Amino acid sequence: MIAEPTLLSRSVQKENSVVDVSSCASVHHVSSERNENRQKTVRGKRKARECSENAKRKHSKSSNGSLGRAENEQLKNGDVEAVTLFEVVSMGRNAMQAVVDDWIDAYTGDRDSALLDLISFFIQCSGCKGMVTAEMFQSKKGTDVMSKMVEDLDEDTGLQYKKFLAFPWILTVTWPLDMDSGEYPLIMSGLYWKRFRSHFCEFVSVLVAQCQNCVIFDGYLLNTLISLLTELSDSRVRAFRHTCTLAAVKLLSALVNVALNLSVSVDNSQRLYEVELAKMASKRASPRLDRIQRKISELQDRKCEIENMMDAIFKGVFLKRYRDVIPEIRAICMEELTVWMKLYSSVFLNDSYLKYVGWMMHDKQPDVRLKCVLGLQALYQDQSSSKMDLFTIRFKERMISMTLDKDHEVAIQAMRLLMVISQSCEDVLSPDDHKNVFQFVYCSHRPLATTAGEFLYNRLLSNHELSKPRDGASDQERHRELVLARVRALIHFHTENELHQHVLYLVDSLWDSAGALLKDWTGLTSLLLPHTSCQEQALSSAEEAFVIELILASVRQAAEGPPLSGRGAGKKVINTKEKKLQIDDCTKLTEHFIKVLPELLSKYSEDAEKLASLLKIPQYFQTDTCDHENSQCVRALLAELEAAVDRHTDAGLLEAAARSYQSLCAQDLPWHSLARPSFDRLIQHWTDTLGTRLGESLSDGCFTANEDSTLEFLSTLKKLNAFNVAQDLSKWSLYELGTRLLDVEIKHSGLPMEVTIEALRCMCSCILWKLNTFGEGLTSRESALQQRSQLRAFCEKCHRCLSHAEQLVREQAFMCLSDVLIAHNYQLQMWDSSAGTPLLYTPDPKLQKALLSFVVEHVFTSPEQDTHSSKVSESECGDGRLEDLHRRRNLLAAYCKLIVHSVLEMSMATELFKQYVKFYNDFGDIIKETLNRTRQMDKMESARTLVQCLQQLYLRLKQEQDRGNTCSSRVQTYSSIKELARRFSLTFGWDQIKSRESLAMIHRDGIEFVFKGFVQQSEKHSPPYISYLTILSEFSSKLLKPDKKTIYSYLQKFAGEQVINNREESWMPLIYYRASLMGTAEGEDAISFISSDTNKQPSLSNRSRSPSVRQVNSEGDQRFLSPSLEPKGNELLKSSEDSKVQQAPLSREQLSSSLVSDKVLRSSDEVDVDTVDIDG
């Protein structure tokens, strides 16, 4: 009997030195029956404390004990004394070699006892808290042995047991039922148990290594061990299966090393034999030849024996467990299989074994697929691809498709696998395969993109054919030719795939592998500047544009670093080394481009697109390294900047120039004294020009400029607006100039549309700058009033522009209003009370209504197109449709921001929510996000908005039906309103506790809306709005069961028992709604009576089609009217039968006082209340 192993205890029990030999028949022949085993099992816990460990039985001598040297080493270091192999291996330390040596000594003295110690070790490592009994198997016939090999549950004792043959013993392992709880050492969390796994694997390897020259070939040790591991790895218990499978494959790996050593010994002996045989006959020693030949035969026999053992483990364990239901076991098998292939390729590296790796690359678990890919990487790197040709051809498509794996790590390693295959097997991947794989440089996951970038660099940019120098060329020319060849290869790749137009993502993917090329700004800029010796290699205009984009992207990457937008969840925190490298790169690019950039700007002064890219480079200059030595270069750069903005009016170019001026004019920059005066002169020149032209163009308050003056006036205004966005230009009185222009348009009209738009932008930028700087110092009441008057005047002007004849003017006025109102609201939220009086402004109701009307008219248009899928719309309407959709989405997003930031009341979102289903393909994401944000602000008010939305749509449909207009396209159908309610209910999510008050309020308002003015005694007809209950039923599924009963009780107070039991056709919506509350199948019958697209009452002829309804009526409908049968019924519902139909409906106050609100957030399964406060 093996003592009960305690996983967490490493202390020594002194009383275990005395052994009850009769408790374990390790040597004696015992013929025990199952009853005897049961008795031993029942006494297992008690016996475990009284009997000793097998390793200590009769061999607890200090000189040759099985754990003697290991214990001595542990005790010398002051560690706790260990008793069992399990405890010693768990401690780890440096005693593994001593543990194995002690065990070998014990095995040499008494192999049965030592072997049982080893068996106990594997049982304990499986987390088994039971015991092991053994009986000798001496019968050669074995007629009934296999019938006894069972694994079952003893119902009498509640213990599980497994009986199996581990020759020469029949072992019985008994353990308690709770072992299936899933806790065993290999899967336990914590650093201690992680180390235990490595110690466990190391023990198996060291054991075989130390025994390879002695007891491993005795025909006893490994045979018993392999039988044990094979049987336990086939157990139904996960702990046995997992632990023993790991031990078995590690044992096979150790045997592979033994076989390799034997192969080396055979080769050495064979060479020695050949050398001895090559000697002359007179000098040849025949006895020596015989000894060598016998040694060779002995080594070959041992090698054959080891291979037979390996084959037994492979067939007995691997073939059964490589498709185990537990993914950890499958991963272990795949990992070790590739190790065997790499170490012992002569036996394992063939198609018979490779097929298992290919099959398991389709495994559902990413860990298993990852082990397969990592193993294949090692095999292809080991120059063994010639033996894998058939495997490569068979599974090439699968390896390529794994780059699209949903697990990022598997996809990355699959990309590395293809990289290794491409290097070792030139012809395996076709050009199309390379093209498809290289496109991953544009994917959103950066690690995968950088791996694809490394593949691209190794395949295309580091090709030896690109680096062939020209005869007689200097080092500088050779370097330039190499850079040119690599850049042209990159250009060819970028233009060939036509997949992505942003060079920035390509540079980010290549940054880690091709950083030397991308940071070679001297070589890259030399391609753009004139070079007398290489005129035949001049770049085309398109190639020059790509090189400029490449330079700009590399400058940005060096200055800011990853991640880019769309790559990475947030800003990467860089360490000190990376920060120093970034500073060095910025210093180098600043020193280089401060000298070269003026020349480049002069060369491309007529090309606005290239010029815009070059003008962005000064934004990334390192200001800390600037000095006065480059003053002449700075002056040249400022001159080229001024010339560029004077010559061009392109919006992108002006924005880039404004940002560059902002960087150069920084206060802490040594160049500030040069850049700031140049900037002021430029702005002053434009302001004077604009004022002069405006004075010339106004005559009697009308704009009378000719075409040339208007173009000059417009270009100057665009430049000022672009620079006003980057820097505050308030001291040049731009707001007053914009006011004069808008006054002309409002009073007399006639102002060109583009001038009106630029005037609105100018005034908006000035207002935003004033709002930004308003609270910086102490604010007086007079300044606050002045700012508020200015803000009100601007809003009034924009309000008038909302009715302008030109649509672009209307849209610009709307966007300006949105930006200003949101900025003002943000200023109020961040206002510091110590700064004085805040600037208070609230848009008047007319302006709010005008904003809503604008959105309805300009955003929710063309409903016929929006009802189709977005893909169909794109294919039919093309780029124009997409541009229009983008514009409308921006307008809607601006209006939603006004609601989310509490500038407008939440009820103003009603019109937006009405269009949720109708325009779902185009604006569904924006409306849904707005709905979620408003719910976070005030969930009750948000729910009221939804109720108001549905009721307004329903009333409008009712009115149109009363008028007979049933085909109006402006009115949503009944089915669409019901679908809208269903979509609203889905937005509440799965957390029913969080939204129970909101949902209860929706039902309460809906019931009051339907039964408003309904008197139970006098009314014989159904309420006019009763069909609204079908719409309301869409929210019933989100209610908790106690809340459903509460709502049902509230419904009874309004409708009464007689009305609820009414089976007339006009009351079918009520039946359907009641069924949704009670959770029964009656609603499936009632729904057939409710029209999908009309609100009219169904005809009586339909009643014959629903026999189930008549059956329910005949049964008295007790299942709906007996809520007291519920185990936790509401008191209100229990007394519902006592409250007669004569009772008046409860008011909101009465309902609120009768219901209890549960504010504790618990899961729906733990809710122990039956009521909810449905009063808002």
From TrEMBL:
Keywords (A to Z) from UniProt: Cell cycle, Cell division, Chromosome, Chromosome partition, Nucleus
UniProt superkingdom: Eukaryota
Main localization of the protein described in the UniProt heading: nucleus
Biased composition (Polar residues): 1092-1115, 1141-1153
Protein's recorded name: Cohesin subunit SA
Subcellular location: Nucleus; Chromosome; Chromosome, Centromere
Protein species of origin: Cyprinus carpio (Common carp)
Described function: Component of cohesin complex, a complex required for the cohesion of sister chromatids after DNA replication. The cohesin complex apparently forms a large proteinaceous ring within which sister chromatids can be trapped. At anaphase, the complex is cleaved and dissociates from chromatin, allowing sister chromatids to segregate.
GO CC, any one term: chromosome, centromeric region
